[in-house]
Structure formats: C-alpha cells, structure tokens
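User: Can you help me understand a structure? I only have the sequence.
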Amino acid sequence: MKDTPEQKLDKAFEALKTYDWGQERKLVQPIEQAIIDADDDIAQRREIEARLAAVLESDAPYDAKQYACRRLRVVGTAASVPALAPLLTDKKLSHMARFALERMPEGQAGDALREALGKVDGQLKIGVISSLATRGESASVAPLAKLLKSDDAAVAQSAAQALGVIGSADAAKALSDGVTDKNKSAVADALLVCAEQALADGKKAEALVIYKGLAKDDQPKHVRLAATRGMLACAGK
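Assistant: Let's start by predicting it. Here is the structure, written out as tokens:
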C-alpha cells in the first residue's frame, strides 16, 4: 500500500533531522510538494512552517537547517522569526536566515535584523545591513545612520549604501548629517541615489535640495557633474 501524502510528509521531516546534501533529494521532496499543495490552505502552510522552525531549534545538522531556511523563505511568517533570529549570529547560517527574514512582510522580521546589528561584526554585519536595505523600512534609518561613523570602513560604506537604497527624505537627512572625511565619498554616492529616487517619485523640490548640496566645490568632479545633470532634470531640461 502506498503512503498517503501525510505519511510521506512525516517521513520527509524525519529524514530532514539527519539530512545532508549528499543524500538523495527525493527524501525531502514531499516537503516542497506539500508547500505547493498548501498554497491556498493557510492552516496547512502554518503547520509546515512550524515543523520547519522546529528543525532550526533542534540539533539537526547544518544542511538540514539550511534546507529549512530555504523553505521558510516561501512559507515563513512572523511565527518563525524566533527560530530564525538566533541564526543571524551564526557564521554558517546567518546568510540563509537573512534571506528568509528579508522576504517577510511582517515587521517582526525587520526588528530581528535590526536587533542583530549590535550582535555581529564584519561580514555578518554587512550582510544584515544589506538585508535591511532590501526591506527598506523607515525604522532602519536611525540604526543605519549610527553606523556611518563606524571604525570599520566597509561597514560605514555599507550603511551609506543601504540608506541610499531606502532613499527616503529621512535617509537623505541621515546621510547629510552623518558625513565625515572618511565616509564622504560613500555618502555622496548614496545621496545621489536618494535624489534620483526622489526625482523619479516626482518630488523635484526634495531632489533639488540634495543635488544643490552635491554640486558644491568640495565634492569630487563626478559627483558635481551628476548633481548638475540632476538639477537640470529637476528644471525639466
């Protein structure tokens, strides 16, 4: 007698407890199929999500947890944030946890990423900054602004780039207020991105203020040229 879909799913989750990429993919395939089949069944998706989150909180091997993170990119909600958040400080799993969190519309995912900023350094911090840029939340402006003056030049540059991607008026102000001799170039480039976004959104007055600040003699030539073109665009020329 063939296994029912429920039995296949149970066996797949059992196999996931010790799964590694060297094993046959068909062992966990029923999980992916169950996610597809549950597209319109919220209760079923939440059950699958809970089982995947449980894998992250267990002593399952790295490959199993990586697989769970990949699937949570599809079915993850605020309910799985508590299981994903601790992985942000894990050198091996931080990137997969970030990818799952940055796709979630729920604010708890952004909160987890912002909280992680103070717990990680180096490439892990840069990765979290990148995820915050992807989410584009206004709540990220203040913590990113603090990092503009980081002693780690790569972190400061990443923070500037992230604020440019967020592109809001608050982000532009944070960039202008946070400029230093060390981050001046990165801030200028990020401000150009903010101005271009404002212009694209029809906020010509907002864009013009930024462009005028970047057209000053203390800016590099390429920044002044870009700012001049921007001012002409604001004038409809």
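Now, to help you interpret it: The chain has a mean pLDDT of 94. Residues 168 and 194 are 7 Å apart (CA to CA). Let me know which part you'd like to focus on.
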